[in-house]
Every structure is written in structure tokens, then in C-alpha cells.
Design goal:
Elements lengths: L36 H4 L6 H12 L8 H7 L4 H13 L3 E7 L5 E7 L3 H7 L24 H8 L1 H4 L7 H16 L4 H9 L10 H11 L18 E3 L6 E3 L7 H11 L1
Length: 265
């Protein structure tokens, strides 16, 4: 009888290193869950959180994963399980949202994510937030003494609609109008000067017309008011010699005052 011939070589023994862990791997044909190394070797998750994530990923859709249900299943207890769930939420492996149903009941919806790094890489980069539109550059505000001038210039259109000024023109002409007011010209007199004998044709550039009149018709400043002549001191009769003399207050005349000073010396 001939010796039996083997068609396939015997299985190689498992590779066991001289130190550290060795692996004997067999392909799963059923009842298996694919878990990524990003989870099983996560550098920040605790071992409890890693194991809990692997367990949750192995459950069918619709399975209950409340803290109480998990604590009934595992010996870690509600405190450690709650902490592990918070870790998974922090690192994107789990979301829990509370919703109020039409019936008024509040439920918690839990969603498990088996590959958060891939989901983050697939998301388009956030669009840059457009810069807010620049606020229009504010026009220079008139000083306090220009308020009357801006009011005068703005009000000109009440007297002639052709003298309608843009706001920037009002602020530009305000110093020239203020010069009139500072020289003692009343607002009504300035208004009469600016609106008198206007051309009958349309006024296409009212600001230029008013700038010309404010500059060319500016009256000179008033000369300083001369000081009023001083009034002489009133007349009094000397208490000693009864002679009349001028002084702010009654008393002795100059001669009697001098004699009294000489006698006292």
C-alpha cells in the first residue's frame, strides 16, 4: 500500500514574538463588527469609553443605550458609564439630543458615529465669514458754534427750493457762514444776502453759488467799541473849610487833608 500524499501543506504555527503580544487571527464569517484603530488605540479615551463605544457600535439600530440600561448590562455602574458617554460625546463618537414630542414627553435621541475622523475629513472646510461691510465714513460734525450756521444753510431751501444742499455741502459751507455770525450779522441778514437777486435760470450748483456769496460779500468786522468817557467825581463840601471839591466820597478837600497829615507828623 502506497503512502498517503498530502495535497496542502500543514498550517503554519502562529507567529509568537520573543516579547510582547502575539496574534492568532481568523476571519469572521458572521456576527462581527468592524472597529477602527482610531477608536481602539485612541490616545485620550479611557479604556471604559473605548469598550463602551465598541459595544454600542455592535448593537442593532433601535437598541436602548440609556445609562440605566447599560448599567444593568455591565458592572461599571452608572457613574463610570455616564463619564464614558461624555468622553465619547467630546471626541465625536456619540451625540445625545433631547427632544420634546407632540405629546409633551421629552426623549433623548442617541446617534453613534463609527468613524468621526473620516467624517471630519469629508466635511468641506468652513467658508470664511465675510467681513461686515464697512460703515460709511461719517461726515465731520460741526462744532457747537457752527450749529446756527448749519441750521441757516439747511433752511435755505424753504425760501428757494433751488438752494437744496447736500449734507456734505452744508458742513463744508458752515465755517464760512459762521464767520458772518461771529461778526455780529444776524441769521436773517445772512439769509437775505444769500437769497437776494437770485438768477431766474435753474441753479445747477447751489453750493458753488452760496460759497461765492459767503466769501465775496463778507462784511468787515466791526471796529472795537470806544470806551465810554469816565464821569467826573461828584462835588462835595469839605467838612473842615466848607470848600467844594470833587471826590468819590464826602470828607475833606485836598488842602485840608494835607494840613491834617502835616500836623499829625
Amino acid at each position: 500500500m502506497a503512502d498517503q500524499q498530502l495535497n496542502a501543506p500543514p498550517c503554519a504555527p502562529p507567529l509568537v514574538p520573543s516579547s510582547g503580544i502575539g496574534h492568532v487571527n481568523r476571519r469572521h464569517a458572521e456576527r462581527f463588527t468592524v472597529v477602527g484603530n482610531h477608536l481602539t488605540q485612541h490616545p485620550e479615551l479611557t479604556l471604559t469609553a473605548i469598550g463602551l463605544a465598541a459595544h454600542i457600535q455592535s448593537l442593532p439600530t433601535g437598541a436602548k443605550v440609556s445609562i440605566k440600561r447599560l448599567a444593568d448590562r455591565f458592572p461599571e455602574g452608572e457613574v463610570r458609564i455616564a463619564a464614558a458617554l461624555r468622553e465619547l460625546e467630546t471626541h465625536g463618537y456619540l451625540t445625545r439630543t433631547r427632544e420634546r414630542l407632540l405629546s409633551g414627553h421629552v426623549i433623548t435621541r442617541t446617534v453613534s458615529y463609527n468613524n468621526p475622523p473620516a467624517m471630519a475629513a469629508a466635511q468641506p472646510p468652513p467658508r470664511p465669514t465675510p467681513a461686515p461691510p464697512k460703515a460709511p465714513r461719517p461726515l465731520p460734525l460741526p462744532a457747537a458754534h457752527d450749529t446756527a450756521a448749519t441750521t441757516l444753510l439747511t433752511d435755505l431751501r424753504r425760501h428757494d427750493p433751488r438752494l437744496l444742499l447736500a449734507e456734505r455741502d452744508v458742513h463744508r459751507l458752515a465755517p464760512a457762514a459762521t464767520a458772518w455770525l461771529e461778526r455780529g450779522i444776524s441769521p436773517e441778514a445772512v439769509r437775505r444776502t444769500l437769497t437776494a437777486a437770485l438768477p431766474t435760470a435753474p441753479i445747477h450748483h447751489p453750493a458753488a453759488l452760496l460759497a461765492h456769496r459767503l466769501t465775496e460779500f463778507l462784511p468787515p468786522p466791526l471796529p472795537p467799541t470806544p470806551a465810554a468817557p469816565s464821569r467826573p467825581d461828584p462835588l462835595h463840601n469839605c467838612d473842615h473849610c466848607d470848600r467844594a471839591f470833587r471826590a468819590p466820597q464826602p470828607g475833606h478837600c485836598r488842602e485840608c487833608t494835607a494840613l491834617s497829615a502835616t500836623a499829625a507828623a
